């Protein structure tokens, strides 16, 4: 009736191509697992979320409700606050617990090698600026607070979800028929997946 961290870890690594029996045996015997750096980083983030989802008294065993909070933190108020804190921590450069436009649109890690890459980066900045100014910064004061970010990320907020859907369709709906065809989605795929917030969504939903 409960899931332990080790049980989840075994299944997670098996889904990434590791041998399930071998992993289970090593974990049982407290042996070192040889995991690549990227997978280890994802595991560390998941473990942080595991601790957050484990309601008092903490026992590191998640029941059905706790496991739902772990898999879908955006549906749990406490986990939603945790995700917002993570985003602020990663992007907030001056430590004031708020985001300015320049902090939000700081370019992703990596150097620009050619003009085409520079153009992609310019488009990325343009999209992030629009996202910041028109969607997330609710009172248009040039600062995004934790409350505004939490409101924006809350999937239960129908007004924001509707606005976001309208904005996405407006950008990609070239033939103006109020629907998105496969070709339009593929053409604007960078827009749909380019948001900094999508990095967190990917951790929450593997299908992204």
Keywords:
4 strands; 3 domains; 208 residues
Explain what the structure shows.
With 208 residues, the protein is mainly alpha-helical. The chain has helices at 5-15, 20-28, 37-53, 64-71, 77-91, 101-104, 115-136, 146-153, 158-172, 182-187, 189-193, 196-204; strands spanning 3-4, 61-62, 99-100, 143-144. Residues 108-113 have low confidence and may be disordered. The strands form 2 sheets. A two-stranded antiparallel ribbon has the order 1-2. The protein has a two-stranded antiparallel ribbon with strand order 3-4. 62% of the residues lie in helices and 4% in strands. The longest helix has 22 residues, at 115-136. Helix 5 (77-91) crosses helix 8. It is globular, with a radius of gyration of 20 Å. It has 3 domains: 3-71, no CATH class; 75-153, Recoverin, domain 1 (Orthogonal Bundle); 158-204, no CATH class. One of its GO terms (molecular function) is calcium ion binding. This is 45 kDa calcium-binding protein. It comes from Xiphorhynchus elegans.
Summarize it.
The chain is mainly α and 208 residues long. Helix content is 62%, strand content 4%.
Measured as a percent range, the helix fraction is 55-70%
Q: Tell me about the largest β-sheet.
A: 2 strands, antiparallel
- Topology, number of strands: 4
Percent strand equals: under 5%
**Poorly predicted tracts of residues:** 108-113
Q: Which structural class should the secondary elements be placed in?
A: mainly alpha
Domain EF-hand: 79-114, 124-159
Protein name: 45 kDa calcium-binding protein
Keywords: Calcium, Glycoprotein, Golgi apparatus, Metal-binding, Repeat, Signal
Subcellular location: Golgi apparatus lumen
